[in-house]
């Protein structure tokens, strides 16, 4: 049986999900030594640094993810206060239809900077259950508060395992590209869209996932948007071939995503590490579309060009639900990835639930049973303590 709590936990992936597992593990089990291993030269190099950071408490009501939404929204507010996050605030949300009508600027929450042309404007959220945070600030703070050791420029390419008494296997270390072995007595796969790579380490599991690669854009700070923080969900506009999601941040910058034209990257490419350390570039046509669409609705931004253009990948499992829990057949291995379009919102409660599972053997903050990787099928033969090196007669990669 894996030691509970573990003495030496290794988290693969320095995104917001890995960071949150590190933070909550350190709170529940201060004696656990935690190491976060990241393939790139900084933490949050992908969606956890480049995503929108929009948070909505009730937008998952009635679904299996409802408690993740509720618990996380509340924890975001609590942690933002505790940590003094500058990028967190409650903010209202408007839906803005496409069109050429001059806005009448009379509706609730209508900011002065929304003074161009569009369609009907309606209130989607009054800030009682909508908020925002910069995901990079959250991720960096969670890791720093956890006291974890961070290993950058360290791509994990395999795991070392030994047979476990009573059947199955356990992980004793992870192998870094270049040959180094990092020992551990528990490990978590928090590799976001690259989660499918773990299939080659754990032949018991299937991780069907697409990475949805999207462009996003940030405009320079303006006083108008600093003082009037209102998020906009703008309708599809055929003139630009896009809808846009507009998030003014407390520093006055405007972040914009949902600009259309995403690329869908399949599991095989993700297993090969496509876009992991290079090549995840923005699509210039989508930048132009977003720029034209923002110019249309706001004179504050006429003639202004974005000063950040970027792209990142949303981890989308085949059923669009997160993958959270233990790895069958490997008693000290866990997986926490595939959080799709709510991975920033869900990070606090997902990380806390995973930390409870890892340190106490059971998650209590949220019921995560519906997110178990077993729903995609388990390769039973491999769970019985075989050597775990092959699936059928096929090699499964870097597995000892
Ligand atoms: C454009 C866009 C906007 C979004 N907006 C929102 C939003 O407003 N609200 C919201 O809640 N969510 C939003 N999301 C979703 C959210 O950003 C993601 O769900 C979340 O960031 C996923 O976090 P993660 O830690 O699982 O993955 P990632 O941030 O991708 O982190 C995974 C990390 O693992 C590392 N890694 C992978 N493989 C290895 C390996 N073999 N060895 C070492 N390291 C490895 C990667 O380098 C990466 O840093 C958005 C996503 C996109 C694309």
From TrEMBL:
<dbReference type="InterPro" id="IPR036188">
    <property type="entry name" value="FAD/NAD-bd_sf"/>
</dbReference>
<feature type="domain" description="FAD dependent oxidoreductase">
    <location>
        <begin position="9"/>
        <end position="357"/>
    </location>
</feature>
<dbReference type="GO" id="GO:0005737">
    <property type="term" value="C:cytoplasm"/>
</dbReference>
<protein>
    <recommendedName>
        <fullName>FAD dependent oxidoreductase domain-containing protein</fullName>
    </recommendedName>
</protein>
<dbReference type="InterPro" id="IPR006076">
    <property type="entry name" value="FAD-dep_OxRdtase"/>
</dbReference>
<dbReference type="Pfam" id="PF01266">
    <property type="entry name" value="DAO"/>
</dbReference>
<feature type="region of interest" description="Disordered">
    <location>
        <begin position="381"/>
        <end position="400"/>
    </location>
</feature>
């Amino acid at each position: 049986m894996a030691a509970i709590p573990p003495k030496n936990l290794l988290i693969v992936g320095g995104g917001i999900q890995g960071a949150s597992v590190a933070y909550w593990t350190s709170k529940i089990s201060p004696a656990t030594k935690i190491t976060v291993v990241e393939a790139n030269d900084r933490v949050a190099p992908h969606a956890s640094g480049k995503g929108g950071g929009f948070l909505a408490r009730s937008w998952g009501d009635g679904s299996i993810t409802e408690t993740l939404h509720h618990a996380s929204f509340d924890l975001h507010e609590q942690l933002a206060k505790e940590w003094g996050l500058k990028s967190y605030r409650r903010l209202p949300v408007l839906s803005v239809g496409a069109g050429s009508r001059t806005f009448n600027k009379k509706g609730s929450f209508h900011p002065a900077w929304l003074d161009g042309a569009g369609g009907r404007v309606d209130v989607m959220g009054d800030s009682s259950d909508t908020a925002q945070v910069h995901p990079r600030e959250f991720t960096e703070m969670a890791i720093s508060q956890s006291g974890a050791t961070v290993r950058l420029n360290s791509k994990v390419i395999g795991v070392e395992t030994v047979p476990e008494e009573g059947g199955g296997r356990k992980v004793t270390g992870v192998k870094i590209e270049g040959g180094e072995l990092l020992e551990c007595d528990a490990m978590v796969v928090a590799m976001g869209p690259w989660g499918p790579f773990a299939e080659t380490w754990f032949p018991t599991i299937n991780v069907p996932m697409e990475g949805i690669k999207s462009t996003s854009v940030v405009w320079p700070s303006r006083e108008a948007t600093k003082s009037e923080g209102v998020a906009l969900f703008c309708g599809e506009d055929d003139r630009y071939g896009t809808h846009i999601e507009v998030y003014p941040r407390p520093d006055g910058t405007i972040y914009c995503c949902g600009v259309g034209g995403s690329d869908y990257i399949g599991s095989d490419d993700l297993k090969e590490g496509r876009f992991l350390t290079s090549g995840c570039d923005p699509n210039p046509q989508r930048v132009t579309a977003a720029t034209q669409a923002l110019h249309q609705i706001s004179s504050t931004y006429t003639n202004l060009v974005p000063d950040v253009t970027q792209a990142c990948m949303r981890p989308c499992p085949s059923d669009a639900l997160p993958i959270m829990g233990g790895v069958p057949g490997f008693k000290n291995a866990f997986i926490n990835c595939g959080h799709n379009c709510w991975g920033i919102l869900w990070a606090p409660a997902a990380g806390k639930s995973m930390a409870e599972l890892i340190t106490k053997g059971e998650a209590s903050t949220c019921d995560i049973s519906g997110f178990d990787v077993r729903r995609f099928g388990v390769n039973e033969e491999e769970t019985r303590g075989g050597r775990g090196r092959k699936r059928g007669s096929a090699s499964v990669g870097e597995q000892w």
